[in-house]
Amino acid sequence: MSETFTLAEATLKAIQDRRSIREYSPEPVSDEDLNLILEAARQAPSGENAQPWRFIVIRDEATRKKLGDISGGGSGRRFTAEFMTKKMQQRFATLEDEAKKKAAYEKLTSGAVSMFAATAPVNIVVIGRKDVWDLPFDTSAAIENMLLMVTALGLGACWVIAPCIDVRDEIRLRKLLNIPDEYKAVSLISIGHPTRPHRPRPRLALKDIVFDETFGNPYYKE
Known about the structure:
By secondary structure, the chain is α+β, with helices and mostly antiparallel strands. It has one domain (21-195): NADH Oxidase (3-Layer(aba) Sandwich), CATH 3.40.109. It is 44% helix and 13% strand. The chain is built from seven helices and four strands; from the N terminus they run ααβαααβαβαβ. The protein has helices at 3-17, 31-42, 61-84, 87-91, 98-109, 135-152, 167-177, and strands at residues 53-58, 122-129, 156-160, 183-192. It has a four-stranded antiparallel beta sheet with strand order 1-2-4-3, with helices on both faces.
C-alpha cells in the first residue's frame, strides 16, 4: 500500500469519525495536543492569504464558567423563540416518546444544550478581523481543521456559535475576553477527552447530493 493512499485513508477516517462532543472528563488537554490543534488552524486557507483569525485559549475555570453562562443564555433565547413560533414542535413531530420530547424542549429552551462549554478543560474562542470580507469562510476553514485534528488526536470537540450570534452575547464575550473593536467574535470551540463513544450520525447518500453538469442530473447512475 502506498504512503499516499495510507494518508488519504487516515484523512478520510478523521473526517468520518468527527463528532460534536459535549461531555468531557476532567483530564486536561496536553500542551502538545493543543499546539497541534492550533497549528492545524494556522494552516487553513484564506482569501488572499489574509489569515484574519486569532485564537484565545481559555483554561481558567472561572472564565470557562462565564463562557458556559453566555452560551446558555444565547441558546436559551434562540430556542425559546423557536418554541414560541411552533417551529420546534414541527422539528420534533416524529418523536413519539412524549417524555423524551419534553426533555428535549426543556434542554433547548433553558439553554442547557450549550452550557457544556463550562465543563470542557479547554475552550478556544475564534475571532477575526472585521476588515476581511471573507471572514466567515476563512474562520470556518480554520475551525474545521481544528476539529479534524482534535479527532485525529483521540479528543472530542464541539463547534459552538451560541455566544456569538446575538449582539448582546457578543458584547458580553468581548468584555470578558478584552477583544478589540476591530475583531469580531465568531465561535467557541470546546475541547476535551470524551466520556463515552459516540455513534455515527446518518449522512445523505452521495447519489442524492451530487449532480452531473446540471442540477438534478444524477452523477451516480443506478
